[in-house]
Design brief:
single chain; about 350 residues; Rhopdopsin 7-helix transmembrane proteins; two-stranded antiparallel ribbon; 4 strands; disordered C terminus
C-alpha cells in the first residue's frame, strides 16, 4: 500500500505506538512506598517489558520498516515468547495485586503470612517464570516466509488447526477470562465489605487508609479490565473465524479496525499506571507537585542570589550534583525526596 493510499488507521497507529512508548516507559519508575509496593514495582517492570517488546520492537517497527528484524528467523519464532510472556506477566501481576489487597483489607489471620515482602517476592518470580514458560509453545506457531519479495512473519500454514486453536483459547482464557472473573469477584467482595464496615464505628485513620487502598485497588484493576475487554472480544472473533483467510491490513473490514483499536486500548494500560497513581494517591500528588515547584526554582525570581537555590532554608549552588540530578533524571520523585530529607537532616 503506497503512502498516498494509506488508511487512516495505519497513520493513527504509526503515531500512536511511538507516542505510547515515549509517554509510558519513562513514567514507570514513579512508585508508591505503601503495602503492595513489591507488586506495583513488578507491574512496572512487566509494563515496561510490554512496551519494549510489543509496542517498540514489534508494532512501532511494523509501521515504520518494510522488513523489521523480527520478520527473519530466529526472531520470528522467538518474538511471541517474549511478547506473550511479558503481557501475561503484566496481567497476572494485576490479578495477584488484587488478591493481595483483598487479603490485606479484610485483615484475615492469613494476612501476616501472605502480605509480606518474602511472599510477594516468590509470587512475583513465579509469575514471571511461568508466564514465559507457558509462552514457549508459540515458538512453533510462526514462520518466516517470502511474499512478493518481502519477508514476513506469519502463522505457520502447515501447523495443525487443533494446535493453533489450543494456543488461541488457552491465551484467551488465561489472559482475559480468568483474570476478569477473579478481579471482578474480589472487587465486588471488597466493596461489599467496605459498605458493611461503614455501618459500624471505626477510627478515622483506619477509614482513611482503607479508602486509599480500595481506591488504588479498584482503579488499577478495573482500568485493566475495561481497557482489555475490546481486545479480548475481537481477538477471539478473528482467531476463530478467519484465522488464515482474513487480510489484517484490509481496513475496509470493520473487524480489523475494531481489533486494532482494541489492541491500542489494551496496550495503553501498560503506560497508564503512573497517571492512575497521580489521580488516586494524595501523597503521590503532593510529592509530584513539590518536585515541580522545586524544579521551578531555576526560573524563579531574579532577586534570588545568582547560582544559588534554596532547600529547607539552606542555599545550595545550582550546579550541585544532587540538585542537578533532579533536572536530568526521569525518576524525579525519588531524587527530590532524597534531597529534601538530606536537607532536613542538616537543620
Amino acid at each position: 500500500m503506497s503512502s498516498s493510499e494509506k488508511h487512516w488507521m495505519v497513520t493513527l497507529q504509526q503515531v500512536f505506538y511511538p507516542t505510547l512508548a515515549a509517554v509510558g516507559i519513562p513514567c514507570e519508575n514513579c512508585m508508591l512506598s505503601r503495602s503492595g509496593t513489591f507488586y506495583l514495582m513488578a507491574m512496572s517492570v512487566a509494563d515496561n517489558l510490554v512496551l519494549f517488546f510489543i509496542v517498540v520492537l514489534e508494532l512501532t517497527f511494523k509501521y515504520h520498516q518494510q522488513e523489521p528484524f523480527w520478520s527473519f528467523e530466529p526472531w520470528c519464532s522467538l518474538r511471541d515468547i517474549f511478547n506473550y510472556g511479558a503481557f501475561n506477566a503484566s496481567t497476572w501481576l494485576v490479578v495477584f495485586f488484587t488478591v493481595e489487597r483483598f487479603i490485606a483489607i479484610h485483615t484475615w489471620k492469613i494476612k501476616v503470612k501472605i502480605c509480606t515482602p518474602r511472599c510477594a517476592t516468590w509470587t512475583i518470580v513465579a509469575i514471571f517464570v511461568l508466564s514465559h514458560v507457558l509462552a514457549i509453545p508459540y515458538y512453533w506457531s510462526n514462520t518466516s516466509v517470502q511474499v512478493d519479495n518481502q519477508t514476513m512473519c506469519i502463522y505457520r500454514p502447515e501447523a495443525p488447526a487443533p494446535y493453533i486453536h489450543a494456543l488461541i483459547w488457552f491465551q484467551s482464557l488465561q489472559a482475559y477470562l480468568f483474570p476478569f472473573l477473579i478481579i471482578l469477584t474480589l472487587n465486588g467482595l471488597t466493596l461489599r465489605l467496605i459498605s458493611l464496615r461503614n455501618r459500624i464505628h471505626i477510627s478515622p485513620i483506619l477509614r482513611s487508609r482503607m479508602r486509599k487502598s480500595v481506591v488504588l485497588l479498584v482503579t488499577v484493576s478495573m482500568t485493566f479490565v475495561l481497557l482489555s475487554i475490546p481486545r479480548a472480544v475481537t481477538q477471539i472473533i478473528l482467531r476463530t473465524t478467519d484465522m488464515y483467510t482474513l487480510d489484517r491490513n484490509d481496513y475496509s473490514q470493520r473487524i480489523n479496525i475494531a481489533a486494532d483499536t482494541g489492541t491500542m486500548l489494551s496496550l495503553s494500560n501498560s503506560a497508564a499506571n503512573m497517571y492512575l497513581y497521580v489521580c488516586t494517591q494524595a501523597k503521590f500528588r503532593q510529592e509530584f507537585i513539590a518536585c515541580i515547584r522545586h524544579v521551578s526554582l531555576f526560573t524563579g525570581p531574579k532577586s534570588q542570589k545568582p547560582g544559588l537555590s534554596t532547600c529547607c532554608g539552606h542555599l545550595l549552588p545550582i550546579d550541585a550534583p544532587l540538585l542537578f540530578s533532579v533536572i536530568t533524571s526521569q525518576n524525579r520523585i525519588y531524587i527530590y525526596t532524597y534531597i529534601r530529607h538530606t536537607c532536613s537532616s542538616g537543620n
